[in-house]
Amino acid sequence: MQAVIMAAGEGTRMRPLTYKMPKPMLLIKDKPLLEWTLSFLPREISEVIIIVNYLADRIQNYFGDSFGGRKIKYVFQKELNGTGGALHACRDYLQDRFIVVNGDDLFYKKDLEKLCGENLAILACEVDDPRKYGVFKMDKEGNLIDIIERPQTKDLRLINTGAYALNKNFFDYDLVQITETEYGLPQTVAKMTDKYKVKIIPAEHWFSVGSPGDLEKAQTEIEKFL
């Protein structure tokens, strides 16, 4: 099975830390964030595809063509046109089933193992205040019905962590455009519910490294993932 890691972004919210280093290469306990992500991948993963753009050489020079016994392939995302565009950039290299994870968050290995066991699924995390996120509307069986962006209430609290189990049926759907220049991966996955069941899996642990303050917190949060 393959894993696709999104690592192309400029990390603008992490500046000035990302002026000379891509966000996935920022250190947590003396190891790059991306190295933690790679080490948490389940044993089912035999090949990793890393989507790169900004300061790509820093990532490629550090990891080379393999890590932890897994082959690494790099795909350059020529245009930074969102997560949907990033996945389309590597479609020719994908086998039928694969997982996709953000390269700048911390994921729990057991959660990713659950993800690998599903045909179509999204890893979710419960938060106290979901109003600045996209939340999942589900049926009684825990399957996705819709994604509601920036809800006005706190009734639905499971948010998207940026980790998915997908198959190549994804590419049968037109990408959903979310801004003038970006195409959304989760919004496109939501379209798949017209034919397929997409399971929502609650995560035990997840930590989003979105700001310099988050990076500081991650130095202690990492203990929960070991």
Describe the structure.
- With 226 residues, this protein is α/β, with parallel strands linked by helices.
- It has one domain: Spore Coat Polysaccharide Biosynthesis Protein SpsA, Chain A.
- The chain is built from 6 helices and 16 strands.
- An 8-stranded mixed sheet has the order 5-6-4-1-7-12-9-15, with helices on both faces. Strands 2-3 form a two-stranded antiparallel ribbon.
- A hairpin with a 2-residue loop joins β2 and β3.
- The longest helix has 10 residues.
- The mean pLDDT is 94.
Distance between the termini: 23 Å
**Mean pLDDT across residues:** 94
Low-confidence stretches: none
Please give the share of residues in helix: 10-25%
Q: What is the count of DSSP helices, taking H or I runs of 4+ residues?
A: 6
Largest sheet: 8 strands, mixed
Query: In total, how many beta strands?
Result: 16
Proportion of beta-strand residues: 25-35%
Estimated structural class: alpha/beta
CATH fold node name = Spore Coat Polysaccharide Biosynthesis Protein SpsA, Chain A
How is this structure best summarized?
The chain contains six helices and 16 strands.
Topology:
Layout: E1 2-7, E2 27-28, E3 31-32, H1 33-39, E4 47-52, H2 56-63, E5 66-67, E6 70-76, H3 82-89, E7 97-102, E8 105-107, H4 109-116, E9 121-126, E10 134-138, E11 144-149, E12 158-167, E13 176-177, E14 183-184, H5 185-191, E15 199-202, E16 206-208, H6 212-221
Parallel strand pairs: 1-4, 1-7, 4-6, 9-15
Antiparallel strand pairs: 2-3, 5-6, 7-12, 8-16, 9-12, 10-11, 13-14
